[in-house]
Design brief:
The chain has 235 residues and is of the alpha+beta class. The protein has two domains: 150 residues, Glutaredoxin, CATH 3.40.30.10; 70 residues, Antioxidant, Horf6, Chain A, domain2 (Antioxidant, Horf6, Chain A, domain 2, 2-Layer Sandwich). It is built from seven helices and ten strands. The strands form three sheets. Strands 5-4-3-6-7 form a five-stranded mixed β-sheet, covered by helices on one side. A three-stranded antiparallel β-sheet has the order 8-10-9, with helices on one face. Strands 1-2 form a two-stranded antiparallel ribbon. The radius of gyration is 20 Å and the shape is elongated.
């Protein structure tokens, strides 16, 4: 697998995330440091650029909500650590927002190329806006890729993270436009008797369309929006 990643310069959903050791704004780290945590690993094209600045601020403001989901944020660009430090300090001085997560200084582009963060058809040096959600076992579970000129939607990344966690915890799937704590999709039955039983349940509970599409309320759902609204009211 390591050879395949090295040659293709990309990772795929379901693979173990490639290991790395890196220098960051918060000291040296490795992927292994996040064992037991979910990781939202994202790249940005460059420091002191407008779209990236808005994203770093937005990620910083949402950090508490990622932490509630046992998730850590980790940024990366090919700029130097000194540049990263100057940039986050400028953000702090101008906005009062302190960036609470590390940003990797990947000057050689080794990590960026290993993860497929550089699209040579766009730029051979800058990373595009990749997002990798890596689970607490080190497996890549979701990949998002945005172009240089489109900023990411942080609430959607949070929603996708919650969807993965709820689907895992309940052994279910989430429907289109799912938002946290709304009904989830039950696995379809694999036998004819199971089909008949499921249709009886749907007839009784009005919780689906047919045996292959039925719903239930998820268990252990962490509705972080309620916490966000509470914090806003307390300010």
């Amino acid at each position: 697998m390591d050879y395949e990643i090295m040659m293709n310069g990309t990772v795929r959903i379901g693979q173990r995330a490639p290991e790395f050791d890196a220098q960051t704004t918060m000291g040296n780290i490795s992927l292994n440091d996040y064992k037991g945590k979910w990781l939202v690993f994202f790249s940005h094209p460059g420091d002191f650029t407008p779209v990236c600045t808005t994203e770093i601020i937005a990620f910083s403001k949402a950090n508490t909500y990622f932490e509630q989901l046992n998730a850590c944020l980790l940024g990366l660009s090919v700029d130097s650590n000194s540049s990263h430090l100057a940039w986050v300090y400028d953000i702090y001085c101008k906005t009062g927002v302190r960036v609470p997560f590390p940003i990797i200084a990947d000057r050689s582009g080794e990590i960026a190329r290993k993860y497929g963060m550089i699209s040579n058809d766009v730029s051979s040096t800058e990373t595009v806006r990749n997002v990798y959600i890596i689970d607490d076992k080190g497996i890549v579970r979701l990949i998002l890729v945005y172009p240089l000129n489109v900023g990411r939607c942080i609430p959607e990344i949070l929603r996708a993270l919650q969807a993965l966690q709820i689907a895992d915890a309940n052994k279910v799937s989430t429907p289109a436009n799912w938002v946290p704590c709304e009904p989830v999709i039950l696995p379809s039955p694999n036998t004819f008797s199971g089909l008949l039983e499921r249709n009886e349940e749907i007839e009784k509970n009005k919780n689906g369309m047919n045996w292959y599409l039925s719903f239930q309320n998820p268990k252990n759902c962490n509705l972080i929006e309620k916490e966000e609204n509470k914090q806003l009211k307390d300010k």
